[in-house]
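On clarity, I found the account of how folds are encoded harder to follow than it need be. What matters is that the chain and its backbone geometry are given together, residue for residue. For the editor and my fellow referees, an illustration may be useful. For illustration, here is how one protein appears when written out as sequence plus structure tokens:

___
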Amino acid sequence: MKDIELNRQDLTYLEWSKIRNSSGTAGSFLKATEENGTDKLYYKLSDYDSIKGVLGHECVNEIIVDRLLTVLGVEHLKYKLINSLILVDGKTIDTFLCVSENFKERGEEKLALDAYFEIEKLDNETPLEFCIRNGWEQYIYKMFVIDFLILNRDRHGANIEVLRNPKRKTIRLAPLFDHGLSLLCRCRTPEEVEKFDVLEDKRVQCYVGGNSTRENLELIPRDKMPNLNNLKETDKDVLLEGLTGIVSAELLEKIWDMIWKRWCIYEDFCNKK
């Protein structure tokens, strides 16, 4: 698998910074960077606790969503899952983490969408209206669909980035990224996996929309539904390949159940007159 490295890599030289979990739950998300010639690599760790170690499987979620977006034909940031040795708080940890490359092109500067909105918005303009005025409506509508399929809980204003090139006077939104807090991200025991309702409309954070991924679908005009590739039941193998043993088979089955059932609801939504 090109997006999974099973041979353990010694990454104990990386220096990790702690980013508090924005959803308010216990734990932290650790990030690190590494210069790679003229480029930079960005490493992410699943939910980490200084006492219990790595608790979550958010990095696996990133890979599954990466594959899903590839199947659906949606531009996105590519991730790779790596079996690694890392050093955190003086302790050596054997875990899987994910890495991505820099999505900025030469000469581009990045700014969180919420910060850019505050600078450039019109009076009484909403973030969604702002994005439509800037020509980003199809990007946002695709984002609404994806976030419904995976129940993304964390599409805050910094998880959508504006990329500007002052010399060329160009501006665009960065490819979709950061999908760790989605799917069954808070299920860490077999009991939690079994009890999880894959269709429950849990409260989410979405800077451009509202707090419901289902209601955000309703914000898409009927004549502007995104043009996505069809998801098929046979895509299950594509999405889950190579992940058994990294997380439980039960978790993977429930994740697919979630994606597929939500896709069927989305298809019904598209066909509704």
